[in-house]
Each structure stands twice: as structure tokens, then as C-alpha cells.
Amino acid sequence: MTQNEKKPLNTPASLRCSLQNSEEVLIVTWQKIKAVSPENMVTFSKNHGVVVQPAYKDKINITQLELKNSTITFWNTTLEDEGCYKCLFNTFGSGKISGTTCLSLSVQPTVFLHYKFFEDHLNITCSANARPAPVISWKVSGSGIENSTEVLFHPNGTTSVTSVLQIKDPKRQVGKEVVCQVLHLGNVTSVMQTVHKGFWFSVPLLLSIVSLVILLVLISILLYWKRRRNQDREP
């Protein structure tokens, strides 16, 4: 009898295997299932105790020293540990009896929500990084809303999902609440934020202000020059 396990990445994890019949067990062997053939990891018997293969030393051990109930423990899981494993009970009367158990590794989501005003629209961005890949959805009111999503895979096994809402009429969104919902392994994380009044950047307005400042500077220079000229003419 076996049971699959789901554990956070970079934490200890244990896999268990039990034999329910009355056969006498001589040795228990744990193997990692690979594409070509299973790879021996560790064995346990009364005569030789625990024997860990060199590739798995300081990485795993049998932590339940029984012949009919066996448990292996990974001290600190890595991406390479995710997969399925076989426990083999070598019995006296029935030969080898095996079971299979699988280990899935996850990383809880980290969620960020922020917004930015532009000249003619408002961008609201929600990003989530997790393993396996999270799914982002929105709760937002209004019309004229476009949504784009970008997915990025990282070497550490996590996936970043970024969803951007582009709102055509940003002024109507001021004072309203926006909710980003992140679905991960059946759990939903909600992050809320209220859009506050911002500064709407306008190119024509900026050009007008710059032109006015330049005009005022030129007028000031002209008046100063005229005043100096009049002073020079006085006897």
C-alpha cells in the first residue's frame, strides 16, 4: 500500500510503502523510476541494515527500519526529486512484490498587484510566481477593458504569470476596487487594491506649459535688456 505525496520544494519529504500480506520479507529496495530502467537508491535488510547508493548519500535515508513498512525521507527536496518511486519487497515465498508512490513538489505563489496611469489609459498589473503555474483571474467593473497575459518559465522550476488590464477610461476607475485572484493547487489567493486619483500625463498640456515658461523667460530678458538700455541713455 502506497500514498502519493505533495510537498513544498526545498523541504523534507517522506514516501511510505507497506506490505499487507503475511509473506516473510527478506529485503526492501527503493528505486527511482526513470525512462530507461529503474535506478536503485537504498535497501534495508536485517543482515546488512541500510545501504544507500553513492548517488543518494547525504540526500535520502530509510527512516522506518521495518521490513513490511518502509519509509524513505528526502532531507531537502530539489527539482530532481520530483517523480515516481518503486518499493520492492523481496519475499521468501512470493518473490518480489512492488508498489509505486509519487512525489510532487510545489512553491506557494508570490503575488504582486500595482497600477499606473498613462495619458489615455490605466494599466493594472497582477503577477504571480509559483510551481506549478498559477492561473490569474480578475474582479473588476467597467467597460473598455483589455486583458493580456505573459508566461515566463524559470530555471528553478517556478513559473511567472503576468496579467495586465488596460482600461481605456481611467477616470471612471478612480475610487473603485480591483481584485486579482490567483488559483494554485485548488486554493485561491485574492489581492485587492483601490485605484486612487493620479496625475494624467498629457503631452499637449506639457508642451503648453513649456511654451509658456519659455515665453515668460523671453519677456523677462527683453524687459531687462530694455531697462538696461534706457539706463545707458540717461546722462
Automatic annotation (TrEMBL):
GO terms for molecular function: cell-cell adhesion mediator activity. It is a single-pass type I membrane protein. Keywords: Disulfide bond, Glycoprotein, Immunoglobulin domain, Membrane, Signal, Transmembrane, Transmembrane helix. One of its GO terms (cellular component) is cell surface. The keyword Phosphoprotein does not apply. The chain crosses the membrane at residues 199-225. This is OX-2 membrane glycoprotein-like isoform X2. The lineage of its organism: Eukaryota, Metazoa, Chordata, Craniata, Vertebrata. The gene is LOC110582501.
